[in-house]
Amino acid sequence: MPGPGDPPADDWLGTPYLRLERRGPLAHVVIDRPKARNAMTPAMYFGIRYAVEHVGRDDSLAGLLVTGAGDVFVPGGDPWSNEDGWADLPTLLGMDNTPFDAVRRTVKPMVCAVNGICQGGGLVIAMLCDVAVASERATFRAPELFRGIADTHYGQILPRQIGPARARDMLLTGREVSAAEAADWGLVSRVVPHDELMSEATAVLEQCCRTAPNARLQVKRAFDDYYGRYDRMAMDASLAGPEPTEGWNAFREKRSPNWVHPDLQRDERI
Predict the structure, then answer these.
(1) Where are the beta strands (DSSP E) in 176-241?
(2) Residue 126: which of 55, 194, 166, 72 has the closest Cα?
(3) Which of 36, 46, 39 minimizes the C-alpha distance to 12?
(4) From CA 17, how far away is CA 31, in angstroms rounded?
(5) Residue 212's domain spans which residues?
(6) For residue 2, is pLDDT > 90?
């Protein structure tokens, strides 16, 4: 049986910070890395991708629910961490291996139960899953441009989800969006009292699992066409450039990146 230090296999997702729990015909993936507030290592991002495809191949499972532990869903990535013991660090965080395409085209229904802070890649996962149910305590943010990342995937998906004016506001100011705003804007589908989150998300997933598989896939194909293609080559070039390194160093050192005008710099994270 695989375990810590091993890549994904069967129900092991390649990292101790993700758990796949079988609840009858439903799979739950729990993101649980408390000491880093659920920040996603490369192996964790890959593990979500693996879980989506693993559930899709398993005839005994009808759907997948993803949630976080504590008061955080996903705050974004932790690209240089190797705590999982096997991942090929920053290269494994490339768009070939992150879960976003797998979530977008999953053959089995997928629901996110957004239990708290939801940022960066976590917000993309929530937007691209079939239904996102959020706790009233959840908050949402897209800080990529403050990390030096030209996230053309965000630039493609977010305006189609909430409209260009609100997408510009989120991407260019990094503002935090409340759960109520997120539901009003269309970032998520539903907002419920925190204590009802898991029961509501489970009920939603069960209902999605009652839809006809082939018909469902054709409808999902229409959604996929609506989102369209993003400029992956531009994003790859950005990730390979100097700005993401400076952006992440500034974040870890709790300072403004060096591209910020001296009069606008702050001794805090942005």
Answers:
(1) 177-178, 190-192
(2) 72
(3) 46
(4) 6
(5) 18-239
(6) no
How many structural domains are present in the chain?
Answer: 1
CA distance 94 to 221: 24
Examine residue 270 and state whether it is found in any structural domain, yes or no: no
- Alpha carbon 174 to its chain centroid, in Å, reads 17
- How does pLDDT run across 64-102, given as a tens digit for each residue? 999 999 999 999 988 777 787 676 555 666 666 789 999
Cα 221 from Cα 66, distance rounded (Å): 22
- Report the predicted TM-score, pTM, of the whole model to 2 decimal places: 0.95
79 vs 206: CA distance, rounded Å: 34
**Sequence-ordered strand ranges (E) for the chain:** 18-23, 26-31, 63-68, 72-74, 110-114, 117-119, 131-135, 139-141, 177-178, 190-192
Is 262 a domain residue?
no
Handedness of CA 15, 50, 91, 220 (dihedral sign): negative
| Helix (H) / strand (E) containing 161 | helix 152-162
Which pair of structure tokens corresponds to residue 78? Answer: 């932790």
The partner residues of 117 in beta bridges, in order of sequence, read 72, 139
Average pLDDT taken over every residue of the chain: 94
